[in-house]
Amino acid sequence: MTLNQICQWIDQTALSQSIQIAGWVVPTVQTIHILAIAVVASAALMIDLRLIGVFWASRPVAAVRARFLPLVWWPLLVLLATGAIMIIAEPARSLKNPAFQLKMLLLVAALIVTWLFQFLHRRDAAFGDVSGPRAAAATLAIVSILLWSSIIFAGRWIAYFAT
């Protein structure tokens, strides 16, 4: 099946038709989606700023990680659910949209960077602390900030691409 055929098939499902008819579903789901991305991006930013040494520099990275990393991973379930509903509601607007495709690529990259931070910190508890590898942690944090910011911008640009 081509992408056009997939979009047409999704668009013709009973669920998609029901969501399209109910005028309140998409705006409600978009609001929840935006709130969830705010939680994820804010939590990632707190971790990244700690790795750079700007935020809570006196606290161990492990404490900041324990506090904020769950706020990165758990809201992703909400983002997945709300994103799926928005795709089902308007499949062509999302799946065929270059801004959406870019957003998905950036999201995969951001999740890899977040997983990499988690992996490196588990392997070396001093990762990002004064006694640990600071340059690698700061570099990872800057890449993370750029990725999460780009995800937000790409998500916003979805509305400006006609399909």
Structure commentary:
With 163 residues, the chain is an all-alpha fold. It is built from nine helices and no strands. Helix 3 runs antiparallel to helix 9. The chain is elongated, with a radius of gyration of 18 Å.
Helical content (DSSP H or I, runs of 4+): over 70%
The class by helix and strand makeup works out as mainly alpha
| Shape estimate | elongated
Largest sheet report: none
Can I get a quick summary?
With 163 residues, the chain is mostly helical.
Keyword list:
163 residues; mainly alpha; single chain; elongated
Please describe the topology of this protein.
Layout: H1 3-11, H2 14-21, H3 25-52, H4 61-68, H5 70-73, H6 75-89, H7 91-95, H8 98-123, H9 134-157
